[in-house]
Amino acid sequence: MATFLYRLGRGAFRRRRFVVLAWVALLFVAVFGAATAATPTSGSFSIPGTEAQRAFDLLDKKFPGMSADGATARIVIKAPEGAKVTDQGVKSEVEKVISGLKSGPGAAEVASVDDPYATQAVSQDGSTTYISVKYKVSGMELKDATRDALKESGKDAQAQGLGVEIGGDALMVAPETGSGEIIGILVAAIVLVITFGSLIAAGLPLLTALIGVGIGVSSITALANVLDLGSTTSTLAMMIGLAVGIDYALFIVSRYRAELAEGRARDEAAGRATGTAGSAVVFAGLTVVIALVGLAVVNIPMLTKMGVAAAGTVVIAVLVALTLVPAILGVAGKRVLPAGEKSKLFGKGKRPAAAAADADAKPKPNGGTRWARFVLRRPVMVLLAGVIGLGIIAIPASKLEMGLPDDGAQPVSTTQRKAYDLMSDGFGPGFNGPLMVVVDGDKALADSTAERIKGLPGVAAVAPPMQNEAKDAAIVSVIPKDRPSSHATEELVREIRDGSGDDVLVSGQTAMNIDFSQKMNDALLPYLALVVGLAFLLLMLVFRSILVPLKAALGFLLSVVAALGAVVAVFQWGWLASVFGVEQTGPIMSMMPIFMVGVVFGLAMDYEVFLVTRMREAYVHGERPGQAVVTGFQYSARVVVAAAVIMIAVFAGFLGASDQMVKMIGFGLAIAVLFDAFVVRMAIVPAVLALLGHKAWWLPKWLDRILPNVDVEGESLRKHLGEDSGPSEGPDKDRELVNA
User: I need a labelling partner for 313 at 20 to 30 A (CA). Which of 34, 246, 493, 657 fits?
Assistant: First the structure.
């Protein structure tokens, strides 16, 4: 592989104008396709195999015309102090609101508007009422004009002194992530300038990453309606694509500069950088693709499509790193080097051979070198400190409670949260999440079901069954006593289901959230096994070792569990909640563990492959195990630290979002990268390798013969170029004894 990539990188460098034009043309085609495509919708959402989904399917069959996934809204109205909503003046204002929704802007998307006085939706003290609105399409598909009309519907009533707040998923919009990405890009630029000491070299990874992300996201947008991807699919692709795009370009540029420092000609340096660091990029990219495509294990079509789309963006990032980066290095010329290095290598008419004589065979000791030597002197202390520290932080993860947030988790300043609180105060917390029981049977079965549910302890009220036209199915609305995301409501759903047959199904948004959380929980271990197992095999190919991939997988699991512990402590228990702007604690978003595993696993393996590949390369070429660790850190530590800081900044930028889910994702990913990069990869990994010595690179001879040789460290490349691949005695001979 190294030889093929060497030729690819060198060819891209020499034909740089053609390669750059080809990528720019591809970007133009993708952007044009996205601009001319129809606006993407929310995409269909289903959870196959769950009772809530079966109930929705039954509704579509038995109640034609009733959209199970249509958006809903509640306009909660509170009378002024001393008045009641049944007063004539208040009733007049409520009727104006209803009339405006039925005939005003956006009325074409309105399916029904309930009259609260006809449905008796008035609190016992007469202070509060609410208007239920049902739309024909989902919340993400609502037109902006319709959503604006909903927001403006209560303005006149508010002017008359009434309290009007709006809740429901009709106000749901895709989370805004632009500010987080801008912050991440700015921090990335600063870190890259510090790392490379050159504006050109710093801008190159950013430029190529943005081109790759632009092509990936534009392609997703262009194909969104054709493939039913939905408007939120590009969010994950953009986040992952930007992360790995910067990382991969950073690795190639760093190796290119190192090859120049050894006196290589520029085209030769580009070829060698692509052949060595490019090999690491290929396998790092494969681990990310495995993690993203593995989301299919969850068996939720929306997640599967998101994972595959994001994996496509990662593939583009790998191709960009292997072709566009060497081409732009050719266009940039000597400007990728700081002024001092440029004059040293290319000044006064020097040729590569003369430059090589002046350049050191190895870079001078740096921070990575000093840290590696410190760890090698005290491996047991460093290992215990890292494992025990992360183990303590991971303890709260044992109390992880998963669920999906409702309007009660919104910031207190939002109208959704105010509407939620008004409903809780006026009617009871359960009114914020009614259960919909679908009965597949006649009136007698529906009535008996309603009577049985009334006797359950967690029930506040049960509405009379509403039958369909054929009189062979009915809907029973159940109001729990507790809030939608509580344990009591979850237990009530289980009690209703346990006491019912196959012809009585519990659904509604609350039940759907419960089923979704259970589905994610059940899929977590199979997903972990698949991703870690396949990556273990892949890393065994890369490192020709059993213990190194095992150490990589165990270290990743440790960092992820510790990150989950930190998320539980902050967002579930409320520790340091004010520091991170968490206004409402509660269950952890059910997607969070799997989402964190997929994203962090890909980034963690990036750092593992790039750092340890350089160690493996040094070891194969004759260095002893301890010195190989030092060499790996000498060349790679600075780049890995820079990549990790950039990713932490990108993810931490989302902490400023008002949406609780976005804030949680940003915190979880940032803290996970912090733990994995700086504790696991930079401390635990060298400590373990120091303790294992030659055994770290042990591979049974029979397995060595079976596994294909992918040559990530470039041994075959050196032979292809006529260079000595390493000594015949010393460390290589020791390794043969270990492998015997």
Answer: 657
* Residue spans of beta strands (DSSP E) within 570-672: 588-589
pLDDT at 298: 83
Q: Give Cα separations from 42 to 137, 173, 228, 453 (angstroms).
A: 10, 10, 8, 35
- What sign has the CA pseudo-torsion 63, 67, 68, 72? negative
Element (H, E) at 53: helix 51-62
Between the two ends of the chain, the Cα-to-Cα distance in Å is 26
Residue 55 in tokens: 């109930």
Tokens 């563990």 belong to: 593
Both structure tokens of 404: 């999906």
Q: Please provide residue 482's backbone torsions phi and psi, each rounded to the nearest 5 degrees.
A: -105, 170
Q: Report the Cα 425 to chain-centroid distance in Å.
A: 36
Strands 402-403, 588-589: pairing is parallel
The beta strand positions in 79-167, using DSSP E, are: 110-113, 128-135, 163-167
CA distance 289 to 291: 5
SS3 464: coil
The pLDDT value given to residue 729: 40
- Map out the domains of the chain with their CATH numbers: 1-36+183-361 (1.20.1640.10), 72-171 (3.30.70.1430), 367-415+543-740 (1.20.1640.10), 430-515 (3.30.70.920)
Q: How far apart are CA 244 and CA 322, in angstroms?
A: 13
DSSP assignment of 345-402 equals: HHGGG--HHHHHHHS-SSPPP-HHHHHHHHHHHSHHHHHHHHHHHHHHHHGGGGG--E
Report pTM: 0.81
Spatial separation of the C-alpha atoms in residues 188 and 184, rounded to whole Å: 6
186's CB contacts (< 8 A; 6+ apart) are none
CA distance 417 to 422: 9
User: What span, in angstroms and rounded, lies between the C-alpha atoms of 591 and 405?
Assistant: 11
Residues recorded for the chain: 740
Identity of residue 6 = Y
Q: Tell me: the pLDDT tens digits for 300-336?
A: 887 888 888 889 999 999 999 999 999 999 888 777 7
What pLDDT is recorded for position 112?
A: 85
Reduced to 3 states (helix: H, G, I; strand: E, B; else coil), residue 695 is helix
Determine contact, residues 307/598, Cβ cutoff 8 Å.
Answer: yes
Angle at 468 between CA 462 and CA 474, to 5 degrees: 35
Residues 439 and 472: their CA atoms lie apart, in Å, by 9
Q: Residue 424 and residue 431: Cα distance in Å, rounded?
A: 7
Instruction: Evaluate if residue 178 carries a pLDDT over 60.
Output: no
Which segment of 169-178, 356-365, 653-662 scores lowest on mean pLDDT? 356-365
Asked if pLDDT for residue 344 goes beyond 70, the answer is no
Residue 395 has pLDDT above 90, yes or no: yes
Distance CA 425, CA 416 (A): 14
DSSP structure string for 519-547? HHHHHHHHHHHHHHHHHHHHHHHHHT-SH
Per the DSSP assignment, residues forming a β-bridge with 589 are 403
Share of the chain above pLDDT 90, in %: 23
